[in-house]
Prior knowledge:
- The protein is an alpha/beta fold.
- It has 7 helices and 7 strands.
Amino acid sequence: MDCCRNKRSIFSYFKDRFGKKQHDESSNESKKRKLVLVGTPNVGKSVIFNYLTGSYVTVSNYPGTTVEVSRGTGKIGDDLYEVIDTPGMYSLIPITEEERVTRTLLLEEKPDIVVHVVDANNLERMLPLTLQLKEAGLPVMLVINMMDEAERIGRIVDIEKLGQILEIPVAATAAALNRGMAEFKRKVAEYDKKRAA
């Protein structure tokens, strides 16, 4: 029972912080927008991070921990974004130090958009985190990566239908092959503008 109450309070706290549109400094056009990449290990977050930021990145330990966080800058649409690649996480209720760092980062950094990257071959297992992020009131969009591998084994994912069910933007990519990345960036720009309106 305490566990459930704790879970609810975590989601309520996130929702209070992110559920409302922020019209203060984040709507300032000259300020960098903030995009945070989240997901379990080995889903291609780093490939997407490198695509968005190019070659110059900063890798440093998160304050007070031994956990590394990568930061870079990239342009999406007309806006400049600080892109943050977080340590792997399976749930908003942390068990590992990496998950604690990612949750703290989501809370303190106030991202304009949270991109949850998942593996197309393990979609069912990874969607619970998408729902947690959404329930917490975070501005989340879903990227289903490794679509090339899924297609190779005959797996079909209806991106449009999934987006309708989840009520968030969904993009399909094979980041290692640079497939679907332009469409992904377009959806990020559209979603961020819609939220800022």
